[in-house]
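User: Can you predict the 3D structure for this chain?
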Amino acid sequence: MTISTGIPQQAQSTLEVNDSMTIDEGTYLVLRSASGAFTCRYPPIPKRWNSVDRPHVALLLPDAGNIFSVFLSNPEDDESKTDRSLEVSDLDRIPSKSIIEIRYSNAQLAYYRRDNGSWTKVAEASDPFVVEVFSHGYAPIVMNMIPQM
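Assistant: Here is the predicted structure, written as structure tokens:
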């Protein structure tokens, strides 16, 4: 499957997300099957880039039992600006049942599933270790994301 991200070719070598929360295949399947909290035409994406929170939009891609995150956003090229915008690929081109991660800050993020032209919020986190999955509307299932030793 080939997905065009709309990000310039020179930036595509840096698309893999290295600092995101670890998502395994089981968690990915839960996100794909969750009923969701609400559905919207466009997900609320961050508009401004800063190097502290490092907001981004990333597509989750399953491959051979692993889940890879691929950036769909990129900070504005002009590094001389103090207030840089976050440029995001055309999300309308993403296929149905795809999952995206939207990171607003170091701790706050949300997961949305593409459902036939709209987006369903399937999970959110307000700390880096606990993700609330919306399997029954607004009553979330809490998934502990701390790796077990």
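Residues 14-144 form one domain. The chain has one domain: 14-144.
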